[in-house]
Amino acid sequence: MTAYRIAPSILSADFARLGEEVSNVVAAGADLIHFDVMDNHYVPNLTFGPMVCAALKPYAAVPVDVHLMVEPVDDLIQSFANAGADIITFHPEAGRHVDRSLSLIKDAGCQAGLVLNPATPANVLENVLHRLDMVLLMSVNPGFGGQSFIPHTLTKIRQVRALLDAFEAQTGKRIALEVDGGIKVENIAEVAAAGADTFVAGSAVFGQPDYKAVIDKMRAELARV
Ligand code: DX5
Ligand code: ZN
């Protein structure tokens, strides 16, 4: 049976009370804290960096999942590892040497992942599967919370699930498959049925007053997949 994980994105949290927001969403049942790093260069928005990650780490009693939407990538890897990141993912288009960047993440003691934009083909994964702990499929174009799930992502989830299952059959290594953008109670079961096991949810969680109620509803949906 698949162990599903829910990763609330603090991009939609109250930035004036971030520590409290992280504590509250962990108490509400978050499995990971998703930390969206935007640089106003790779994506048209600007959020937070390693200093904020380090400040929030004591409030995150679960692993911190750092999604780098920055260009270039390599300089920030060690900074985020030092700031307490447990997982670091980046977009292959944003770095010149994807294999090297993945190695830097592993050498820094973190789990490593690649993020595929809606238009990025899945074959960028093929030559680096042995370096990956996670694949993150964007189901919106990166840069903003609160966008609508792009339905074609379901086809891509099935395609990448097959690739990861074949890799696991060969090597015994399981790579997590995370989906990010427009995930809510109404569609999480469909996304899981397509083959995802880790679900980022920003506005769906932080847009409601009761985080536990939303996460419980998501888990109830996942239980019927
Ligand atoms: C978008 C970010 C997402 C975003 C998801 O670039 O990577 O993590 O916060 O937000 P929702 O769940 O609102 O689509
Ligand atoms: Zn993200």
From TrEMBL:
The lineage of its organism: Bacteria, Pseudomonadati, Pseudomonadota, Betaproteobacteria, Neisseriales. Substrate binds at residues 9, 67, 143-146, 180-182, 202-203. The keyword DNA-binding does not apply. PANTHER family: RIBULOSE-5-PHOSPHATE-3-EPIMERASE (PTHR11749). It catalyses: D-ribulose 5-phosphate = D-xylulose 5-phosphate. One of its GO terms (molecular function) is D-ribulose-phosphate 3-epimerase activity. Keywords: Calvin cycle, Carbohydrate metabolism, Cobalt, Isomerase, Manganese, Metal-binding, Zinc. The gene is rpe. Belongs to the ribulose-phosphate 3-epimerase family. The keyword DNA-binding does not apply. GO terms for cellular component: cytoplasm. InterPro entries: Aldolase_TIM, Ribul_P_3_epim, Ribul_P_3_epim-like, RibuloseP-bd_barrel. Its cofactor is Mn(2+); a divalent metal cation; Co(2+); Zn(2+). It comes from Neisseria chenwenguii. The active site is at 36 (proton acceptor), 180 (proton donor). Pathway: Carbohydrate degradation. A divalent metal cation binds at residues 34, 36, 67, 180. This is Ribulose-phosphate 3-epimerase. GO terms for biological process: pentose catabolic process; pentose-phosphate shunt; reductive pentose-phosphate cycle. Binds 1 divalent metal cation per subunit. Its EC number is 5.1.3.1. It is an enzyme of class 5 (isomerase). Catalyzes the reversible epimerization of D-ribulose 5-phosphate to D-xylulose 5-phosphate.
